[in-house]
């Protein structure tokens, strides 16, 4: 039977750390896992955005403060962050597309919601 666990909580309580530790433990026990999580990016002690990191070790920008979208691309914002949809689609979507009946119980995700800003 599939089991789903949802972690919620304010920033800094350890949700992503738990995902990282759980994936390390499962991998070291020989359990195949796949998925992704987000990790904050800091510059000069200030959070400037987030990266999406796959459990296979690939990393790319998820969002940055005030980043302008490439020309011709729709801007997607979450608060002060502009989301890099292309990077997210390149890294996270293949993880989701590779889910099968056999491996769906071994998927770890740190889900991020993208809300389109009004007027764009």
From TrEMBL:
UniProt KW keywords: ATP-binding, Hydrolase, Nucleotide-binding
UniProt entry tagged with the keyword Transcription regulation: no
UniProt keyword rRNA-binding present: no
Origin superkingdom: Eukaryota
Protein name as annotated: Cancer-related nucleoside-triphosphatase isoform X4
Organism for this UniProt entry: Equus przewalskii (Przewalski's horse)
């Amino acid at each position: 039977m599939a089991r789903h666990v949802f972690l919620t909580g304010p920033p800094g309580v350890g949700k992503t750390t738990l995902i990282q530790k759980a994936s390390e433990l499962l991998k070291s026990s020989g359990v195949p896992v796949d998925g992704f999580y987000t990790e904050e990016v800091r510059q000069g002690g200030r959070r400037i955005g987030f990266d999406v990191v796959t459990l296979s070790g690939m990393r790319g920008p998820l969002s940055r403060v005030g980043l302008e979208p490439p020309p011709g691309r729709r801007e997607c914002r979450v608060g002060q962050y502009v989301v890099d949809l292309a990077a997210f689609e390149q890294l996270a979507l293949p993880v989701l597309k590779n889910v099968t009946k056999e491996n769906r119980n071994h998927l770890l995700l740190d889900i991020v919601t993208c809300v389109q800003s009004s007027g764009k």
